[in-house]
Amino acid sequence: MSKVALIPLFAFLLFWQCITAQVLTEKRFEMFFGAQGISCDSFPDGSNIDFLNYIEKDDFSGNCAYIGFAGSAKVGEKVLCSVLVGMYSDLSPVNYNVSASYSLFRFIGFGASFLGYPQLIDRYDMYHWNTDVGMYANLNPNYRQRRLYNLGFAAGPQLNYKNKWININMKLHAGVRWTRSLEDAILQKQIAGNYIRLISYETSNSPSLYFFPEVKVGIKLFRISETSIGLRSRFSSEITQRFINYSVISSEWTLDNSSESYIKSPKHNYSKIDFDFGIYFEW
Fold this sequence. Notes:
Helix content: under 10%
Low-confidence stretches: none
CATH topology: Lipocalin
C-alpha cells in the first residue's frame, strides 16, 4: 500500500482519538455502502498520447461499489469536523474526505474540505500499437496499468440544519485539484530490424479548478440511552475539466541518442458522482 493510500487511515485514526475526548459534542459514527460513477471525454489519437483517453471509467457499472466509515463531531458551538473513508473489499481506499466548517449564522457556515481518491489508467500502450507502424509497440509483456492519485482542496459556503429528527448538511465548495505524477516507459523494436526505441513518460501535477457540491441527510429512528440511531445518505459530485501534461524522453537506436519534450494535453470534461447509504450512531 502506498504512502498516499495511508493518509485516510491515519486521518480516521486521529479523528477517532479526538472523537472519544470529552471536549467534543454531537459525536457521530457512520457505516455505509456506496457506489461511484465516473465520466470523462475521449478524443481521437493525435501526434502524442493522451493519458485521459485510457482512464478507468465506471459509470455505475462493473466494480464501482464500496463500503465506508465516517465520523463527525462539534468542537464547541461553532466548529464541525468530519472524516470520511470509502474502500473496496480489499481495503484499498476509493475516496476520502476530511472537512471542517464554522457556523457564521444559525444555519449558514463556511467550510473547507480536502478530498482524494485513486484511479487507474489501463492499456495506454495501445496508443503505440495503433500509431507506431512497423514497430513492436511494447516489448514488455506485462499488463500496462498505473494508479493515479487525485487530490483536491475546496472551500465555500454550506448549510447545516438540524432538529429533533432530521439533519441536513449541504456544501457548495470549489477549489483546486491535481494529480500526483507517475513515471513509466515503453520499449519498442523495429519489426524485421535492429532499430530500438525507449519512450519514457513522467506526468506533471496538472492542477485544475473544480466544483464540489455535496448533500448529506440523516433521519433519526430511535434512541437508546444516550445514543441516537438513524439512517443517513450522501450525494457528492466533482465537476471539472481535466488534463494530464507530461514530459517525454525518446531514446533511439543505442538508447544514447535521446530527445526530450513537454506535451500539453487537451482538456477533458470530467465528472465523478458518489452516492452512499447507511446508518449512524450519535451521542
